């Protein structure tokens, strides 16, 4: 009897993990995950990667939440490809590492619960207006495609205030814009690393918190480049091969910025203290392999909240609070901020 039960249990497990789930394609791998009190409901993760060309559309279980269609040589996402039974419950869709060059304007219309979409490592050059309209997207990966220009209005929420993270790194971008800023754009994070941008893109009106411009062809940072990005928390400008100057007040207005990465900018030889005007909330600054030392200590007067500065692989400065001498007239001890560096002589 025990042997029979064990055999039955093994059979059930095999059904779930090896494609025995109802409506699971014979070449896909389906895995059921149960949730709730007493496992009262379940969702299915479906892996249909690497099946080869000509396999879509693929029938999937009705309760599918995650679908992997990567490595399938798909070239075109049509209106009907993602509209069958089971697709309407998708929360996550992976279409990476295909040959996708076109996406129909209504290809994602049925995916009303879709939060994560991966279209990376394809050959996309443009997207149709409104192709993401009405979707509750939280993450979209468009990295490693062929975009040269990109209009961020494709992510217009039209009344849905869902913050979204977008990865457009490693494309061929020379322009990122908003052509019709009539609707709200709730973009939280924007990755633009590894493109061909020569100036800082104008992103006014977008409540960005994280912006990455690493590895672009920007030759100078000018006053006003970031003045309207008041919600920005982290900004990365690392590895810009042509960056040679950052003008005074370039970061003015970034009152909430906490992390600034200016590392690996080999053409950047000097920084005026006024470059850091307005960075009252900045806590971490990375200048590794970017600026000759020593640095004038006055540079830190513009950054009252600074906690850590990196100037090289083994060159760090940090601020500590040192309790001062007790004053009888004031009735309390005054705390002093002490700047300490692990290599002497890098701050004068």
UniProtKB/TrEMBL annotation:
It comes from Bagarius yarrelli. InterPro entries: Dev_Immune_Receptor, Leu-rich_rpt, Leu-rich_rpt_typical-subtyp, LRR_dom_sf. Keywords: Leucine-rich repeat, Repeat, Signal. The keyword Signal applies. GO terms for cellular component: extracellular matrix; extracellular space. It comes from the Eukaryota. Residues 1-18 form the signal peptide. This is Tsukushin. Coiled coil: none annotated.
């Amino acid at each position: 009897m025990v042997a029979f039960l064990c055999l039955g249990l093994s059979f059930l497990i095999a059904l779930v993990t090896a494609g025995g789930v109802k409506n699971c394609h014979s070449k896909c791998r389906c895995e059921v995950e149960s949730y709730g009190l007493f496992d009262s409901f379940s969702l299915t993760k479906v892996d249909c990667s690497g099946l080869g060309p000509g396999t879509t559309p693929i029938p999937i279980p009705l309760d599918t939440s995650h679908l992997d269609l990567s490595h399938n040589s798909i070239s075109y996402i049509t209106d009907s490809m993602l509209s069958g039974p089971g697709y309407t419950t998708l929360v996550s869709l992976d279409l990476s590492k295909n040959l996708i060059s076109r996406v129909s304007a209504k290809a994602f219309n049925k995916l009303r619960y879709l939060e994560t979409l991966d279209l990376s490592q394809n050959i996309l050059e443009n997207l149709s207006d409104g192709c993401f309209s009405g979707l509750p997207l939280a993450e979209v990966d468009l990295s490693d495609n062929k975009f040269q220009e990109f209009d961020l209005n494709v992510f217009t929420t039209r009344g849905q205030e869902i913050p979204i993270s977008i990865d457009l790194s490693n494309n061929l971008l020379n322009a990122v814009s908003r052509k019709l800023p009539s609707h709200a754009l709730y973009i939280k994070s924007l990755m633009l690393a590894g493109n061909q941008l020569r100036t800082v893109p104008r992103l006014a009106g977008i409540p960005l918190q994280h912006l990455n411009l690493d590895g672009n062809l920007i030759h100078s940072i000018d006053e006003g480049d970031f003045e309207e990005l008041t919600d920005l928390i982290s900004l990365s400008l690392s590895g810009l091969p042509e960056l040679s100057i950052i003008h005074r007040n370039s970061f003015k207005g970034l009152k909430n910025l906490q992390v600034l990465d200016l590392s690996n900018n080999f053409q950047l030889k000097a920084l005026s203290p006024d470059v850091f005007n307005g960075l009252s909330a900045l806590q971490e600054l990375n200048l590794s392999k970017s600026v000759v030392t020593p640095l004038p200590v006055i540079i830190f007067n513009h950054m009252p909240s600074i906690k850590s500065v990196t100037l090289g692989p083994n060159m760090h400065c940090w601020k500590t609070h040192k309790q001062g001498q007790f004053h009888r007239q004031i009735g309390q001890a005054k705390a002093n901020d002490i700047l300490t560096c692990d290599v002497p002589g890098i701050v004068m």
